[in-house]
Structures are given as structure tokens and as C-alpha cells.
Amino acid sequence: METDTSTLARTAPAVPAVRSVLNAAVIVAALGYFVDIYDLILVSIVRRPSLTALGVSGEALVSQGVAILNWQMYGMLLGGILFGVLGDKKGRLQILFGSITLYSLATLANGFVHDLATYKVLRFVAGVGLAGELGAGVTLVSEILPARLRGYGTMIVASVGVSGAVVGNLVAKLLDWRAAYWVGGGLGLLLLVLRIGVHESGMFRKLETASGVSRGDFLSLFTRRDRLGRYLASILIAMPIWFANAILVFFAPEFAVKLGVTGPVSAGDAVAFFYGGLVAGDVASGVLSQVIGSRRRVVLLFVTLLAAAIGVYFAVAPGASPRTFLVLCGLLGLTSGYWAIFVTVAAEQFGTNIRATVATTVPNFVRGLVALVTTSFLWLRPGLGLVGAALAVGAVWFALAFVSALSLRETFGVDLDYLEPD
Fold this sequence. Notes:
This protein has 422 residues and is mainly alpha-helical. The protein has helices at residues 5-11, 14-19, 24-45, 47-53, 60-90, 92-110, 116-144, 150-174, 177-191, 202-209, 225-236, 239-249, 252-258, 267-292, 296-316, 322-335, 339-348, 355-368, 370-407. The N and C termini lie far apart (56 Å).
């Protein structure tokens, strides 16, 4: 019986190749995103104890919690543009470590706040810093790894990163809210020592030496219809993830009461279950994308699964136990687990001269749009109620995500060494 040598050639090096993904750049980007998510989500986990310690009570726990979250997201909008442009002008590596430094210092300072105004300002500053890490890390990893392994690299970055929320919940249970912020800031500063041995992307180095090439031109995203369409679609495909996170999980204690769950639900536990599911989902979507050779089909599949999971959330929660409700939050996380694919798609859609700008601004515009999601939810809540407002807001973002995913071109395995035209 003859052996198919072409098949052997394709499959034999698979295991060593996958192992080679674990280089210094992937490890540092993954750990950086781990601390990023820890710091980003900690405000949700410690919302109630921190605000209570600052004298907030009653309905203000919701409104002030939203306000602090929104200030953090406004910072991420600004930081996404700032760090994205700098990433294409100064390099992926400088921005990666610059963002880590900024959000770590701001998070450390958060542990010392004694009033709401300072709390909001520091979360804004932290948001600016948090904006740079993921985009710079994904851009660096995407440009360093060969095309056939990019999905595995970004999968590792995303899945390790989102587990930071689970660790954040554990730390918040063991320590008070101030110490939890200090731990997050300290972890980020410790991470900076790992910058030794991480090298800049070869594609960026080649771009640096090219003459007459515009780099990091954010406004160029709006000068051509096809480029603007790709950019907007790259943002909108991920909005269902943050709808589930910012509404159904962030306000899990309130939804548990409204839906008749038989006991209290901790916001921190809801976040931990959601992000635990997200870790599994990111691994599953990343591997599936590599196996079937498609990013777009995996995005469409997971948006559909997340819509179904939200239906299960509202159907099963009434009269359920707190443990069952937390499992439902985990299901939301599992089906939201296309974040790894989403950031990979954003990086793959555009040329080297604006890739960091796109990869950094896109996830932060998604996060920044959370302010619109939460504000519209609060605006509709008096008339439609907690559940009705959530369903109305969610319907809009899911419709936009489906249309956007269908409009994007397939980018699996494409060569990224090219420039966007002026």
C-alpha cells in the first residue's frame, strides 16, 4: 500500500509547528493581556464593595457603577486611537510595554481612592493604558508567526488573557477591594521585566525603512468606502460579546433578583463564570478556525450560538438556584468565545502600515461602545423593565453583527506583508 507523501508533508510537522508558537512574543503578549483583563474587569468585580466603602448605596450602586465603567471605556476609546497610531509609527513593541506601564500605575493608584471623582479619573487613565496592550500584542504576534499558525498564536493570547478575570475574582475574594487593585498594578509592573528577549516585528522593521509610506494614518480608514466598510464591520461583529458581558453579567445580581433566582448572586462569581467560559470558547473557536480554514464561518457560528445562549439564560433562570444561574453566565461566556477570532480578523483585514492602528482601535471601539449599550439600556429600563430593555438593546447589536460578519472577506492564511493604498 502506497503512502501519501503529500499528506505526510502536511501533517508530520504539525505538532512541532504548534509548539513553536510559544515564543517570547506570544508569551509576553498573553501575560500582558492577562493583566489587562484582570485590571479591566476588576471594576465590575469590586463594584459593590468599593462603592459601598465610598458611601454609595441603593440605586446609586447601579448608576455610579455604570458611570465608572463608562469613564474607563471612554479612556479606552482615546487610548485605542493614541496607541494604535503610535504602534504603526513607533513600533508594536514600544507600545505594548508603554501601555502596560500606564495601566499598571493607574490601577495601583486606584487602591488609594477615597472619593468618586478620583475613582473615575483613575479608571479613565487606566482605560487609556488598557487600550494599547491587546492590539499591539495581536499585531506583533500576527506579523511574527507564519500564516498557517497565526490563529493558534492569537488563540493563546486571548485564552490566557481572559483568564485574568477568573484570577481577579479569586483575588477579590481573598483580599479587600483596595488590595485587589494593588495586586493588579503590581503584576503589570512585574511583567515589564519580560521585555528582554522580545523582538520587534520584521514586517514593521521593513516598513520603517520604506520611503514615502504613510504610517498610522487613522483618518485614512475613512477616505475609502471599502476600507471604512471593513473597519466598521470588524468592530460590529464583536458587539454581542460586550452586550452579554456589560448587561447580562455586569448586572447579574439585579437580573438574578428580577428573574426569581432562589438566592443572591455575586457579581464577582458571575464575571468569573463568564470569563471561565470565555477561555474555553476562545480555545474552541481558535482551533475550529484552524481546522476548517475559515475565520468568518466561525464568527457567524458563535454569534448564532450566543443568541441561543441568551434565550436559554432568560428561559432557565426564573426559579433557578444561584449555582444554575452562574452556569448560565458560563454558557454566555462559552458562546462569546470568538474574541480571539475577532481580534485576528481585525489584524488580518488591513495592511502593515495601518495594521496596529486597526488592531488597537477596533477592540477598544467595541469596549468604548459599551457606554452606548449601557446608556441605552438604562434609558429603556423605566419603560420596558430590566428584561425588556436588555432584549431590545441586544436585538439591535446582534442584527448588526450578523450583517457585518457576512460582509467581511475571508482572511484565513492570507499573506500580511502588504500595504494599504493611500
